[in-house]
Write a structure and sequence with these properties.
alpha+beta, Aminopeptidase, Alpha-Beta Plaits, 2 domains, five-stranded antiparallel beta sheet, elongated, zinc, ArgE/DapE_CS, Pept_M20_glutamate_carboxypep, M20 family metallopeptidase
Length: 378
């Protein structure tokens, strides 16, 4: 057990509820900043050294909180990083508790895990618990859209860290933490055609939708499940009315790969589809990889074994898994910093209407993260 007193799952859930009911869609910078203000005030009150990074490009701001640790802050810190933004628009889901499950927007991905990080850091400071190394808490506002304004900050903070802990949700029925993730990419395909009357002048039209349909089947054909490569074309748009040959169409393309080389290969193959088409339409393709793969290394496995031993002493098993979804841990792992992911709440339904946590597991899982923060260091 950590030296820090974490509290019960009931008390953790009571405070977490406020975070969940304070909804924070990625698209609502003001809502995210308001919750960030609450977090910052709590941490400042117990002595954390804060840095606020203002939002830009329509996204909320970010927060860095530091605990000096022993030796006046000397030594490489442990970085714990989470995000406050969620995929849910206001009012789509509501908070409720049914038995062992607590439901709500973003409660699993990843309000519970980010709350773990905040709560552990706050209580370490409040209770004046000695840690082996300094601690840096980083909370960001744009992870759900690929971390466009926070990646540089994440990499800055990770560059001097001895380890990175990512309290994204624990995964699967076995409630695993994560030692490897696929790399992720996002591309946008747009097609320009020529409008015409679909009855009187069909031959003068150039259907952007037909071209897009052909491209989608080609991109779908690049899937290789055995190699860990997937593509998904969605959302898809095009056309105006049934009697008008569509002059515009497009889609977004989600990419998941197991290696950097495969990501480069797949992006090049999709980009090669751009340009003038034989039917007279024109294709434009933008985007590429936005998160490198998180690769399981001996250093990551050593970090995992420390976490598993702590969990065992607390009273639960902590298996590991490789996960298809990306996180900010992809960035830090690619820098060669030992990174352990999936240390957040247990539950299910990320990005789904039934998103929930198993709230009775809040205290033991938060305690595991807290003990890692207390004991990791050079």
């Amino acid at each position: 057990m950590p030296a820090t007193q974490i509290g019960t799952s009931e008390t953790l859930l009571a405070e977490l509820r406020g975070w969940v009911e304070h909804e924070t869609p990625t698209t609502d910078a003001a809502a995210i900043d308001a919750l960030m203000n609450t977090v910052a005030a709590e941490l400042e009150a117990v002595g954390a050294v804060l840095e606020r990074i203002p939002g830009r490009d329509g996204y909320g701001g970010h927060l860095v909180a530091r605990i000096p640790g022993p030796r006046g802050g000397q030594g490489r810190p442990v970085l714990v990083a989470g995000h406050l933004d969620t995929v849910w628009n206001h009012g789509v889901l509501s908070y409720r508790v049914e038995g062992d499950k607590a439901f709500g927007p973003g409660i699993y991905d990843m309000k519970a895990g980010s709350f773990f990080a905040f709560h552990a850091v706050r209580e370490i400071l409040r209770q004046k618990v000695a840690t082996r190394a300094p601690i840096t808490l980083l909370l960001t506002s744009d992870e759900e859209v690929g971390s466009p304004t926070s990646r540089e900050l994440i990499e800055r903070e990770a560059s001097g860290a001895c380890a990175v802990l990512i309290p994204e949700p624990a995964g699967g029925a076995d409630k695993c933490c994560v030692t490897a993730r696929k790399g992720t990419g996002r591309m946008v395909v747009t097609v320009k055609g020529q409008s015409a009357h679909s009855g009187g002048n069909w031959q003068d039209g150039r259907s952007a939708v037909v071209t897009l349909a052909r491209l989608i089947t080609t991109i779908h054909g690049m899937v290789d499940l055995d190699a860990g490569t997937t593509t998904n074309c969605a959302p898809v748009w095009g056309g105006t009315r049934p009697n008008v040959i569509p002059n515009e169409a497009g889609c977004e393309v989600d990419i998941r790969v197991a290696t950097v080389a495969k990501g480069e290969e797949l992006v090049a193959a999709i980009q090669a589809l751009a340009g003038p088409q034989p039917d007279g339409t024109e294709v434009r393709i933008t985007g590429g990889m936005n998160r490198p793969p998180m690769v399981e290394t001996p250093a990551v496995l050593a970090l995992y074994e420390q976490a598993r031993a702590i969990a065992g002493r607390i009273g639960y098993d902590l298996p590991k898994q490789h996960r298809g979804g990306g996180s900010d841990g992809n960035f830090t792992a690619a820098m060669g910093i030992p990174t352990l992911d999936g240390l957040g709440g247990a539950g299910a339904g990320a990005h789904a209407e039934f998103e929930h946590i198993l709230w009775r597991e809040l205290a033991p899982r938060c305690a595991t993260l807290c003990e890692l923060l207390e004991t990791l260091g050079d």
